[in-house]
Structure to design on (224 residues):
């Protein structure tokens, strides 16, 4: 059953829609400015900052030691394995400020309603086993693609080719995907199978809405 669940999630059209979002193609093409990328970074900060809390809640929710261990491995890397300066959040701040972005834009921008809805989805899913597994899997299997696309936007407007925040994902994300997949081993019946799938769908839809809004804001002047 768990192999079937993993295969079903991996081939989900919503996952493909998110990974192939039109924003990512437009980031490769250019046609935007530093302020536009600053907006994207400021919105991304919110799920980045909340993600360790989400994972910690999931660890408390998941019932088996195997699933707790799988998510703990992800959380440990997210928070720098005990070294705050190596946490994804800290590396994000240092990467973007060294690239020339104002820290206020990166960490203090108000979240859009789509960003707020995404955080609400993370929070609400973390207190139910199947919902938590769906959100974890849905996010981890696309995270590297999302981060890489944001990195392209940063490189386009700053000329910076070495971005430590992107590089740490290249190193760690295969482990995250593996552990997210391992966590699905705790799914034991058909009802949980369906609930995990529905939760992943919800996560991907919220992520798509999140990037739809960023695209509309970044390219509003071009559209006009």
């Amino acid at each position: 059953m768990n192999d079937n669940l993993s295969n079903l999630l991996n081939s989900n059209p919503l996952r493909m829609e998110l990974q192939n979002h039109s924003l990512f193609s437009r980031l490769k093409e250019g046609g935007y400015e530093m302020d536009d990328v600053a907006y994207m970074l400021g919105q991304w900060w919110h799920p980045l900052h909340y993600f360790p809390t989400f994972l910690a809640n999931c660890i408390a929710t998941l019932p088996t030691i195997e699933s707790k261990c799988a998510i703990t491995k992800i959380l440990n890397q997210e928070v720098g394995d005990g070294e705050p300066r190596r946490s994804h959040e800290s590396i994000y701040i240092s990467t973007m400020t060294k690239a020339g972005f104002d820290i206020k834009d990166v960490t203090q921008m108000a979240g859009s309603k789509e960003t707020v809805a995404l955080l609400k989805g993370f929070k609400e899913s973390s207190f139910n086993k199947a919902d938590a597994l769906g959100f974890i899997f849905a996010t981890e299997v696309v995270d590297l693609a999302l981060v890489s696309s944001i990195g392209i936007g940063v490189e386009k407007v700053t000329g910076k080719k070495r971005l430590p925040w992107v590089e740490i994902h290249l190193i760690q994300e295969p482990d995250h995907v593996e552990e997210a997949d391992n966590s699905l081993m705790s799914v034991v019946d058909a009802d949980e199978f369906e609930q995990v799938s529905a939760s992943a769908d919800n996560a991907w839809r919220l992520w798509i809405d999140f990037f739809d809004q960023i695209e509309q804001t970044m390219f509003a002047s071009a559209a006009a």
Notes: The chain has one domain: 2-219. The radius of gyration is 17 Å.
